[in-house]
Design goal:
This protein has helices at residues 2-26, 46-49, 71-84, 99-102, 105-110, 119-128, 131-139, 141-144, 218-226, 243-265, 270-273, 306-319; strands at 31-36, 39-43, 54-58, 63-66, 89-93, 114-118, 156-158, 163-166, 171-176, 186-190, 195-199, 232-235, 278-281, 284-287. The protein is of the alpha/beta class and 328 residues long. Strand 11 (195-199), helix 9 and strand 12 (232-235) form a beta-alpha-beta unit. Bound molecules: zinc ion.
C-alpha cells in the first residue's frame, strides 16, 4: 500500500516535472536583460505573439511589473519573475489601456498582485470597451480561455502625478505628462537609477500606433519625459536604449505632423497621399501605401504603420481634433 502510494506519487511527480520543463521551454521569453541591479527588461515577442515589453523592478520585499501584457505574455513574465526573485509581484502597472499592455490584468490579480494605472487608463477602457476585448478574444486563445466579456480595469488608479512607491531600497515614480499615444499614458521613473519606462508613448522602432493618439501633442509629452534626465530608456516595444530613443521618437512625431500639414497646405487630397488598399500589421488592418516620406534621421521609426500614421494625422489636422477623439 505504502509502496503503491509512493509509485503513484512519483509518477505524478514525473508528470509535473515534465509539464514544468515543457512550460519552461515554451515559456522562454525573447530576451531578459539586466539594466541596473534589480531592474530587468523583458522584450516581448510582438511579431509572433503580439506581446509588449515588460520591466521587472525589485523592491525590498516585493516586485513591480510594468505592463500586464496580453494573458499569454503575463504568464511568460510571471514565470520570468519567479526565476529572477522569490519576492511576490505586488504591483502591475498598466502604462495604457491597449490589449497588449492591459488585457493580462486578470492573470496578475488572480495571482495576488494589484493592478495600478493613471486614472486615464480606466477612462479609455470605458470609452473603447468591451468592444475591443470581444473582437480581440475571437483571434486570441489566451483571451478566449479566460471566458470573460470585458477587460479587467486597473484596481488602483492615481490622478495626481507623480504617484510614488518608496521603500528602504528604492523609489519608483509614476508620471502622467499628457495625451500622446493614449489619454492614459503612464511613465515609470526610478530617480536614483535614472531608468525610465515609457509604455508606447515612446517606442524604439516602427511601432507607433496613432489611432487613439493626439499626434500634435505627442512630442510635448516626450519633451516632458526628457526633463527627467533618464540614462536608460525602456520602451513599450523595441529594444532598450538611452536618451536618444526619446529624442528620435519626439523628432519622428514632429516630422510626421509637419509633413502631413505641408501636404494639406499644398491642397493635396488624402486619397493621393494615402491611396486605397489595406494590409495587416501586427493584427491591425491599415492602409498599405503612402506617398509621403520622412527624413533619414527618423528612419528607425518608419515602417509599415506609416500610411496609417499619415491618415490619422491628416484626419486630426483637418478635423482640428486629436485623432483619439474622432470616431474610429
Ligand atoms: Zn499601445
Amino acid at each position: 500500500m505504502k509502496k503503491l502510494r509512493w509509485l503513484t506519487l512519483s509518477g505524478f511527480a514525473i508528470l509535473v516535472a515534465m509539464a514544468f520543463f515543457a512550460t519552461r521551454t515554451a515559456a522562454e521569453p525573447g530576451e531578459i536583460k539586466l539594466i541596473v541591479p534589480g531592474v530587468w527588461f523583458c522584450e516581448g515577442d510582438l511579431a509572433n505573439l503580439g506581446h509588449s515589453n515588460n520591466i521587472i523592478i525589485e523592491m525590498k520585499d516585493y516586485l513591480i511589473v510594468v505592463d500586464a501584457n496580453f494573458p499569454s505574455g503575463a504568464r511568460l513574465t510571471m514565470e520570468t519573475a519567479k526565476r529572477i526573485s522569490p519576492k511576490p509581484v505586488k504591483y502591475v502597472f498598466d502604462t495604457h489601456h491597449h490589449g497588449d499592455h492591459a488585457y493580462g490584468n486578470p492573470i496578475w490579480t488572480k495571482a495576488g498582485a494589484t493592478t495600478l494605472a493613471y486614472v486615464g487608463v480606466t477612462e479609455e477602457m470605458k470609452r473603447f470597451e468591451p468592444t475591443r476585448w470581444q473582437a480581440a478574444a475571437k483571434g486570441r486563445p489566451d483571451m478566449a480561455d479566460l471566458h470573460l466579456n470585458a477587460p479587467e480595469p486597473p484596481q488602483q488608479t492615481f490622478e495626481k502625478s507623480p504617484f510614488i512607491l518608496k521603500d528602504g531600497s528604492r523609489e519608483v515614480r509614476f508620471y502622467f505628462f499628457g495625451w500622446a499615444h493614449t489619454r492614459g499614458d503612464g511613465f515609470v521613473f526610478l530617480p536614483k537609477e535614472q531608468v525610465l519606462c515609457t509604455g508606447d508613448a515612446v517606442v524604439n522602432g516602427p511601432y507607433n500606433f496613432t489611432a487613439d493618439a493626439n499626434v500634435a501633442n505627442w512630442p510635448k509629452v516626450v519633451h516632458s519625459a526628457q526633463t527627467l534626465g533618464a540614462r536608460y530608456v525602456l520602451p513599450g516595444h523595441g529594444s532598450s536604449g538611452g536618451p536618444e530613443v526619446l529624442e528620435g521618437q519626439a523628432k519622428f512625431m514632429t516630422e510626421l505632423h509637419r509633413a502631413v500639414a505641408d501636404a494639406i497646405k499644398q491642397d493635396k487630397k488624402l486619397e493621393q497621399v494615402v491611396p486605397a488598399g489595406t494590409t495587416t500589421v501586427y493584427g491591425n488592418v491599415v492602409p498599405a501605401k503612402t506617398t509621403l516620406a520622412l527624413s533619414g534621421s527618423v528612419k528607425n521609426w518608419v515602417g509599415p504603420f506609416l500610411p496609417a500614421q499619415v491618415r490619422d494625422t491628416w484626419e486630426e489636422i483637418v478635423q482640428k481634433t486629436p485623432h483619439g477623439d474622432i470616431q474610429h
